Amino acid sequence: MIIITSEVIVKPEHWEEALEVADRHVKASRLESGCISHRYLVSPELENCLFFYEEWQDRAAIDAHFEQPYSLEVSSKLGKWASNKVKINFHTIGDQHQSAI
Prior knowledge:
By secondary structure, the chain is an alpha+beta fold.
């Protein structure tokens, strides 16, 4: 499994539209083959900050995901609307057993 995390601080004048784009992106992504989990959160600490958390079966699923129109849209728009350098991290998780705490 591969986990992707990303964080973007959106310029205030684009905040509402950014929420709409993020919502569309997440809902569409959840329907993709290979998507285990996909969500976005609004930071309680940083103003106008979106945090994305995604779990994917493998790199092939991620590559297909990045080619989708809604992925291209969210990447393009949030990149233009960001007031920070967008942070994206990839974390590869082995076949370890996971348990809820």
